[in-house]
Amino acid sequence: MPNIILFKPLPKLNIANNSFENFPSNILKLQNLRTLWLNKNNFKDFPTQEILVSLKKLKAVYCFGIAKNTLDNLNKDYLVLTSKRGNSIRFVEELMVNPGGENKLIIGMNKETKSKINKNRIFISYSHQDDKWRQRVEVFLKALQNEKKMLNEEVLLDFWSDKRIKASQEWEKEIAKVLNEAYIAILIISAEFFASEYITTKELPPLLENAEKHGTKIISLIAGPCRFKQNKLISKFQAVNEPSMPLSNATPHEQDNVFLNLSNVIADYIY
Fold it and tell me: Left, alpha or beta for 43 (phi > 0: left; psi -120 to 50: alpha)?
């Protein structure tokens, strides 16, 4: 294992043109890392999924170049990335969704059947009876986005609900595409949420699968009294308010504190 001394606030790291065979695992602890140069190494292991899951602020990875070692000895994911010029973060994301799928990446992915996790995309799943809570969630997400603009920081929030579907779009296809891309899913949970056939059969299964396989973050917002705790598939994920204190029982001030906590959780994941 290469001996690299790292500092947590580090925003950029260049370890290109070395002979590392093992990916330095301490890089995954750099929570503020935004740009990473890995060109011309000999990685026999390459933690594709861990890079995206652990380095939440990472925006650029550079791997292009002929490696020093023979191609046969390189990790397959890293070998693919050495053929990509410029910022290859998109290809890292695609490899995360399609582990070991280097042939598909080189030939070109089938866009009809394969999507990639988009680190900036937030999907809001809700019953239309709970639309007032969906609107309030979006107010706080917009406030977070504007805060980052004022600070001249990168704005990377892309929150999505079915309200964004245009009349000309095929709504089921559009929802399915976004479900497969979402890095964060906010579930506005109530009895109406669990009673929705569409939510329980169309929206939740791909979200739960992506949470297990690709690290999609699922955050629950308890809107009303319901069987949240009894639902083992959902209750194992983070909830921003206690099921015993749903939004419907809270004062407006308490409700806004819940939405504020939600935006803080989102900020921790995205920024």
Answer: beta
